[in-house]
Amino acid sequence: MGHECDDCGETFETLSRLRLHDCGNDHSDGSLDASEVSGVSDTAGVNDSTSPSSGGGSGRSVAELDDSLDRVADGDVDAIHHAIAAFESTLSAALDEGGSGDAYREVFWSYYEPVADALDAATRSEGRDVLDDVMDAYDPAADDELPLVTPALANVVGRYVIRTRLADGVEAVPITSLEYLDAVAVDAADGDDIALEETHAYGWGIGHPDHSIVDRLRARATSGDLSVSPTLEHAFYADQYAAVDALERLVGDESIDGTFPRVNRDDMPYRRYLLDCVYDLKTDGSLPRTPRYYDWADEFDYSFELDEGVERRVRDLVEETGFDAELPDDWTLRDLGI
């Protein structure tokens, strides 16, 4: 069913398209003038952001965005589209203002978690169509740069992939969600650290019958993508047997011949860098911390124990590739960390 704009009468296939369209100066799409962004006078890209120590930030308040989030909390699920559009426009207005970047970072970190939580709640309440709609509206491959809200959206897509995998199995994970996370990783710029971190949950699609995670990771590995290793770590928690298969294939592939840069040290072979993914597998309670603001282990009472056979395969792989040459004789998986 189409969604009609009350102001101009144009019809759109999705609510996000409706929210984002431009029909004059009435801001029916949820956008904001720079003058409407409360307290935002400085800018910087999210690439330069540093997460505050206590989650959601401490500084800036945007009335339009606060109102939309309140509406979502009160059960108006459609308001999530307005909230995301307002968040994007607020960040964009901050970028247009110029300045040191402090204000941008305050807005970003103040609303990153609330927007992600609101979208997650809407998705859990109304189903995956809400999330598919948003992914389509903020396509990471549509422009030269990622949408500014990408970290929050990828966060929720990651939550959805993990939750679906643990609740219903890998076959139930939507391909659209996996393709979205992969697209974010492929299209991100070198400095899009926050967005890239939120793609690590892509590893939970390992073993999907209709989407080859390992093929996509190999394609990214050939370009030196540093998000591949932490994605493999997530894959171990999803299915350690499929993950060690993937690790053997990638580390054993000599056509992946790039290097991992290190400060004041010689560059490391990229394939050796990939072995960093097993660093924490035998460390009690040390699970990946992405997606941010989501404790998947607690939600599913999840626990992990590395199978002895899988560990043996990792050790054999290290020895077969010669990457044990600089390790101590009694090396452990912790010695494979970068």
UniProtKB/TrEMBL annotation:
Chain intervals with Polar residues compositional bias: 38-48
InterPro entries on file: DUF8137, Znf_C2H2_type
Pfam families noted in UniProt: DUF8137 (PF26458)
Domain C2H2-type as annotated: residue spans: 3-28
Region (Disordered), start-end ranges: 30-63
Domain of life: Archaea
Record-given protein name: C2H2-type domain-containing protein
Originating species: Halorubrum glutamatedens
